[in-house]
Protein 1
Amino acid sequence: MPHTIVSNICEGVADCVVACPVACIKPGQGKNEKGTDFYYIEFDICIDCGICQKVCPVEGAVLAEEREDLQSL
Ligand code: SF4
Ligand code: SF4
């Protein structure tokens, strides 16, 4: 199951973007509820390796499940 970036928890730090082995983490449009940049995961490309969740410094920003309802593009 692909991972999900919770758009309104992500702070746009982008540690995950460079760490993802298949480059499936992309910038979201505009700002989130925190007023920060945010990223999203392309579910069709994600290989569920979990690296993004390990490197993310923001607690709760990455979930190890597919939650389209929590992730904006
Ligand atoms: S998911 Fe975490 S590491 Fe990735 S951009 Fe958001 S805050 Fe940064
Ligand atoms: S689980 Fe792996 S493949 Fe999927 S977005 Fe995170 S780092 Fe990329």
Note: Strands lie at 4-5, 25-27, 39-41, 62-63.
Protein 2
Amino acid sequence: MNLSERDQRVIWHPFTQHQTASPAIGLVSGEGAILRDENGRDYIDAISSWWTNLFGHAHPQIGARVKQQLDTLEHAIFAGFTHAPAVEVAEKLLGLLPAQQQKVFFSDNGSTSVEVAIKMAIQYWYNLGTPRTTLIAFEGAYHGDTFGAMSVGARGVFNQPFESLLFEVAAVDLPDDDNFDAVMARFRTLIDSGTVAAFIYEPLVQGSAGMRMYKAVHLEAMLRYAREKRVLCIADEVFTGFGRTGKLFASDYLDTKPDMYCISKGITGGFLPLGLTTCTRDIYDAFLSDDKLKTLFHGHSYTGNLLACAAATASLDVLSASAPMREDLAARQQAAAARLQSHPQLRNVRQLGTIVAFEVHTHGGGYFHQLRDILYEGCIRRGVLLRPLGNTLYVLPPYCITAEQLDKVYAVIEEVLAELTL
Ligand SMILES: Cc1ncc(COP(=O)(O)O)c(C=O)c1O
């Protein structure tokens, strides 16, 4: 039995309807933008393995740092103890963020980084003795799959069975030129109620909603109002961090800085799971007290894992030298988007930094539209990994993808589009 067959007997995969899904492809190795399967077939990872892999698979510098760490100390309790990899990650990360970000809380993935931010925000107001519990989030948001993260995310097909258990959140439409005044009016009314603890948002790009991009000036106005009224602002940069959008963080496009950042995915270069929530001194100080009840009682067994932290320190070193590579990819992506603009089957071609996204025109859409599977399978058959969100296709490769590989990605997309009979 090969890997794929053995897998089918014992494994339940994420986001997978096993009744209809093709068997999982058995991977054996990777290098740069390439993933290789057990039959020796190569796939270009044009989605950076769920947006995590920034610098390529099996990156030697990150791998070497993790190997070194393995021989020293692999994991230790993170309450009452600390270690160089964690301290270095925190120092390096804070060095990249605005100076008002002063403390780093460790957890394990993007969803937990969001859970921690939500808990910090709610307990901040509780500890101050002026409880506020309302959260504002955007329509269409995706912040993860744990219950708090689902609650601040859009209601829809992914969380329908749990809807009655999710806490209520004040949802605001994503702003555009047409609805901005209405969005702002609702936002102001919500905030003026005095009950809003925090506003959580994916800055400039809603990833899972279908790479929905919106303008910095609109978000800027919302953040400015929220800050003015002392509502905490939580930037979920789990997807947008580390150069993806053309700046180190999407929040760097804005003058008004958030009170908290949620960080994960690219922090380890895609090597190991790690989540981080950063905050201002003001938030941290609200938890300092002789009263033990004011403690942030949150933690996970693997919080501060040394291997993940070691990968992150190496990844941040690689990041600091990666600007030319990122700029080159952004320029190639901009050129590709310009070429696709006139494609008759595509709509709404958009690009920000290293991200290109567009809709494939169909009659009817939605996440479960059969087009999604046709596009996915058509690309996989041709050796390109793309994972459409409904009829939205996006190209979001590791920064090291070669010109030839990226050309192949777009050539394959055109081939698959040419075959469509819908
Ligand atoms: C903006 C954003 N926040 C949070 C998450 C959740 O991260 P994770 O899948 O690591 O739990 C994601 C995942 O795609 C995301 O895009």
Note: The domain at 3-54+322-419 is CATH 3.90.1150.10 (Aspartate Aminotransferase, domain 1).
Protein 3
Amino acid sequence: MRQPVVWVSVVIVIGLMVIITVSLVNMPQATVKTFPADKGPNFIDVSSYPPQMQEYYKIFEQKCSRCHTLARPINSKFAGEDWRKYVYKMMRKPGSGLTPKTAEQIIELLVYDSQVRKKE
Ligand code: HEC
């Protein structure tokens, strides 16, 4: 291992491995990892919610099940303003398909839901 050429190749190979690992970690692959919340119920019974909230629920169902189970947000223990932080975090993920307008509607639903629904 005295030739510099060998060292240069070793450094390049390790460098590539690091780059590949970092890009894999950053990809939206939430479906691969399973969160405990994924195993809970995957719907909310919104039949007693105000009509406006039932509308927002449809948006939530559609937008928040793209990268992971709908059960994940449904069984998370966030409440009130915590949701704002999380929905915005999800919006910033590549390919989320979320806009500030839909994000606000989803936040309104999730905040309302966290006030009325009992979770075990
Ligand atoms: C672009 C893909 C994508 C979309 C769309 C998305 N999520 Fe996520 N979500 C993720 C990923 C990836 C994780 C794994 C944790 C992380 O990377 O933050 C995650 C994790 C979560 C978690 C668990 C966070 C924790 O730390 O316990 C919640 C709750 C959540 N998402 C809610 C939502 C809601 C609500 C929506 C709809 C507004 C949504 N997600 C839409 C990618 C997405």
Note: The mean pLDDT is 90.
